[in-house]
Design a protein that fits this description.
It is globular, with a radius of gyration of 31 Å. By secondary structure, it is mainly α. α11 (232-248) runs parallel beside α14 (288-302), α13 (262-276) packs antiparallel against α14 and α18 (433-453) crosses α19. The chain is 68% helix and 0% strand. It has 22 helices and no strands.
Length: 560
C-alpha cells in the first residue's frame, strides 16, 4: 500500500491541491454573493454553469489532449483556471462571471482527465481497487480542506481568491516534474442511451436526483447557513462536516449494501433523508452545534446516493458494457447538478432561504415514490450480481475517465464502443458464424469442381490476371483478383503454359463463366473466415486500429 501511494504520489498531491482551491472557491463565491445581497438564483446559476462546463468539457478536453499532449494540456488548463479565479477580483459583472465559471469547468475537467488517464493507464488490475479508493479519499479530503481553509480568512476580500489561485498554480508542479511516461489517449466510448435506459431506468433516476441534491448543496448550502446567523468560519465547518461524514459513511453503508436488497436500501436512505431535513424547514431555531449534527447526518445520506445508485446499475448491466455505463451515469449525474442549483435558487429567491431543505426533502420523496423493490424483476441481472460496492466521491469534481479505475470494470474486455444488438436496425444483424462457414464451404466445393474440370484454363486465366495486375495501378484492381493471383503463384512463372491465339479465345470464353464463380467462392471463403473469427479477433483489431494520438501527431517524450 505504501509503495502504491509513493508511486502515484505526484498525481495524488496534484489532486489534493486542485480540489483545495476548488472547494475553497465554491464556498467563497456563495458567501461573497450573499453578503452583497445577490439573488440566490444567481448563486445557483453560477454553480450550475460550472458543472455544465465539467460535463461538456470532457469532449473538449479530449481534443485538446490529442492535439498537444498531456503535459501541455494540463499546464494550459491550469493557467486558465488560475486566471478565471483572479479575474473575479477585478470584474464585478455577473454575466461575465457566468462565462468565466463555464470556462473554468472545461479547463478543470481537462486537468482531471490528465491525472485520471495516468492512473488508469499505469495501474495493474490487481491494484485497481486500491488506486481508485485512495484517489477517492484524496478527492474528498481536498474538498474538505478547501472548505476548512476558509476559516483562515475572516473577511471576504481578495485574500481567499489569492489562496485559491495559489493552489491552482501549485498543482502544476507535481505533474510537470513527474517522471512517469505519458499515457496513451483514450477514445471515449459512445453512449448508447437506449440500451442503458432499457436496462437501468431506476438507476438513472437515482443519479439525476442525487446530482440535483449535491449540486444544490455546494452552491446554496453556504447561503442557507449564512442566513441562519453563522459567520464565515462556522459556515466552512458546517459544509466540511457534511462532506467528511459522507466520505466516512461509505464503508459501513457499502458493507450493508452488499448484504441486503439494494433497491430497498436506496429507498430507505431516501426516506431517512427526507424526514431528517424536516426540522430544517424553518419551524425551529437550531443552534450551531445542532446544525453541524444535521449536516453530518445529511452528508452521510446524500453523498452515498451516487455509489449506491452506481452499484445498483452495475448489477443490471453486462460486465463488458460498464465503461459506457459509467459514462452515462456521469453525464446524468452532472445534468442533475446543473438543474438542481438553479431550481433551488429560484425557490429560495421567491420564498425563503429555508426552502433549500424543502427542496432536498422533495428530491428525497421523489426517490421514495419512484424506487420500488417489487418493480425490480431481475430480468437484466448481470452474471456477477450483486457486484461489490465501491466507495466513490461525489464525482462532480472529476471526469468520466476515473470510472475505468472502478474494479468492477474490465477495460480489456469492454465492448461499450459497439452498438448493442437491440439497437441495430432491422436486417443489419451480423450473420451467424456457423452459417457463414457452411455457406463458404459450399461455395468452396463449387469452386473446386470448376477448377478440377478445367485446371489448365483456370491456371492460364490466373497467370494472365497476374500479368495485368503488374501493369495496372493497385487502386484499379478489384479485391476479388487476389485469390486468382494466389492460384497462379503456386507454380513458377516459367512453368505456366502460354496459350496460342485459339487457346486464348477458348480460355476467355470459359473464364467468363467460371471466373465469377471462383471469385465469389473466394470472397465467401474470406467472409466466412472473418465471421467465424470475429469474436476472437474483434477486440485485438479494435485496439490496434485505434490511434493513441491524433493524426500527424507524435507522442510527447517522457519527462525526466
Amino acid at each position: 500500500m505504501v509503495q502504491m501511494i509513493a508511486s502515484f504520489f505526484s498525481l495524488y498531491l496534484a489532486t489534493v491541491l486542485l480540489l483545495v482551491g476548488s472547494g475553497l472557491f465554491n464556498t467563497y463565491m456563495g458567501l461573497r454573493l450573499t453578503a452583497e445581497s445577490v439573488s440566490e438564483l444567481w448563486v445557483g446559476s453560477l454553480i450550475a454553469i460550472y458543472y455544465l462546463g465539467l460535463v461538456f468539457g470532457a469532449r473538449i478536453g479530449h481534443k485538446i489532449i490529442i492535439q498537444v499532449g498531456h503535459i501541455r494540456a494540463y499546464a494550459a488548463t491550469a493557467a486558465i483556471v488560475t486566471i478565471t479565479i483572479l479575474v473575479l477580483a477585478l470584474v464585478n459583472n455577473l454575466w461575465a462571471w457566468l462565462g468565466f465559471r463555464f470556462l473554468a469547468g472545461i479547463a478543470m475537467v481537462t486537468q482531471f482527465m490528465v491525472i485520471e488517464s495516468w492512473l488508469n493507464e499505469q495501474t495493474e488490475n490487481a491494484q485497481r481497487g486500491r488506486v481508485f479508493g485512495f484517489y477517492m479519499i484524496c478527492s474528498s479530503c481536498g474538498t474538505v480542506l478547501g472548505q476548512l481553509s476558509l476559516t483562515l480568512f475572516p473577511s471576504l476580500n481578495y485574500e481567499p481568491l489569492i489562496f485559491a489561485a495559489m493552489c491552482s498554480a501549485l498543482c502544476l508542479v507535481p505533474v510537470a516534474l513527474t517522471r512517469r511516461m505519458h499515457p496513451t489517449i483514450q477514445v471515449p466510448a459512445p453512449i448508447h442511451a437506449k440500451y442503458y435506459l432499457a436496462r437501468v431506468p431506476m438507476s438513472l433516476i437515482i443519479l439525476f436526483v442525487a446530482g440535483m441534491v449535491t449540486g444544490a448543496f455546494y452552491g446554496l448550502a453556504p447561503v442557507f447557513a449564512l442566513k441562519q446567523g453563522l459567520n464565515n468560519s462556522e459556515v466552512a465547518v458546517f459544509l466540511a462536516a457534511s462532506v467528511a461524514a459522507g466520505l466516512l459513511a461509505q464503508w459501513p453503508l457499502g458493507w450493508l449494501a452488499d448484504r441486503v436488497n439494494r433497491a430497498g436500501m436506496i429507498r430507505l436512505c431516501a426516506l431517512i433523508l427526507a424526514l431528517s431535513t424536516i426540522p430544517l424547514w424553518g419551524w425551529w431555531t437550531i443552534p450551531y452545534w445542532g446544525l453541524v449534527v444535521f449536516s453530518c447526518i445529511l452528508g452521510a445520506l446524500q453523498f452515498t446516493l451516487y455509489p449506491l445508485g452506481a452499484a445498483f446499475a452495475n448489477d443490471n448491466v453486462d460486465p463488458d458494457r460498464r465503461v459506457g455505463l459509467s459514462a452515462i451515469l456521469y453525464m446524468v449525474y452532472g445534468m442533475g447538478a446543473c438543474v438542481g442549483p438553479m431550481f433551488a435558487g429560484l425557490l429560495m429567491r421567491e420564498l425563503h432561504p429555508e426552502v433549500y431543505f424543502v427542496f432536498v426533502s422533495g428530491c428525497a420523496f421523489v426517490l421514495v415514490a419512484v424506487i420500488r423493490p417489487q418493480q425490480v424483476t431481475g430480468a437484466n441481472l448481470s452474471e456477477d450480481a450483486p457486484t461489490h460496492f465501491v466507495p466513490m466521491s461525489d464525482s462532480l469534481q472529476s471526469s468520466n475517465i476515473v470510472a475505468s479505475l472502478d474494479p468492477r470494470v474490465d477495460v480489456e474486455s469492454d465492448v461499450s464502443f459497439e452498438t448493442p444488438p437491440e439497437e441495430m436496425p432491422a436486417g443489419s444483424l451480423p450473420p451467424d458464424p456457423d452459417e457463414a462457414v457452411q455457406a463458404g464451404a459450399g461455395l468452396e466445393e463449387t469452386a473446386s469442381a470448376v477448377a478440377s474440370a478445367a485446371p489448365g484454363l483456370v491456371t492460364s486465366v490466373a497467370a494472365e490476371t497476374g500479368d495485368l495486375a503488374a501493369d495496372a495501378p493497385e487502386s484499379a484492381l478489384p479485391r476479388s483478383v487476389s485469390p486468382e493471383v494466389k492460384v497462379g503463384a503456386a507454380a513458377p512463372e516459367s512453368a505456366l503454359p502460354r496459350p496460342t491465339a485459339p487457346e486464348a479465345a477458348t480460355a476467355g470464353s470459359v473464364a467468363s463463366g467460371s471466373i465469377g464463380t471462383a471469385t465469389t467462392a473466394a470472397d465467401a471463403s474470406d467472409a466466412s473466415y472473418s465471421a467465424s473469427n470475429a469474436a476472437r479477433h474483434r477486440r485485438s483489431q479494435q485496439s490496434d486500429s485505434e490511434p493513441s494520438i491524433g493524426p500527424n501527431q507524435k507522442p510527447d517524450p517522457a519527462i525526466g
